[in-house]
Amino acid sequence: MLILGVDPGSSVTGFGLVDNVSGKLIYCHDEQLKLPVRADIGGKLAQLYDCTAALIEKYKPGQLAVEGIFYGSNVKSMLVLGQARGAVMVAAARHGLKIFEYPPTTVKQTVAGYGRATKDQVQHMVKLLLQIKQVSGEHAADALAIAICHHHHIRVEYKN
Fold first, then answer.
1. DSSP 3-state of 119
2. Which structural domain range is residue 137 located in?
3. What's the structural domain count of the chain?
4. Contact residues for 22 (Cβ-Cβ < 8 A; gap 6+)
């Protein structure tokens, strides 16, 4: 089963695809979408929706895993992040994908073994686990980490 992991953001969104072949994790694709800084929020959300839909149509993943909400002190940033997550989730729902959410600490714990791992530690572990040398950027690495986290959790779920 192909899993699309997404690290949504208002300026950069990461996408990562991994496949679950007989319980083994296989790297497929990663990329980052950089949204225009000065674009209005509607334009950014439309572009994010379109990019997500295009990736779903091209690769045909079976499930989508997205970083869950975390709480911060900047309410405006949290609202914009929620809107970005919404655009991704609507694109997935429109294409019939089941959506799974994982908090950042769960993703870090699953991938790096420590819920407060740094971005560098997560990126390093993603490369090791997927046996790849390069990732498109830190947001793409986070998206791959989210997909890896989901892969791990569905494997545990199916074993029980």
1. helix
2. 2-159
3. 1
4. none
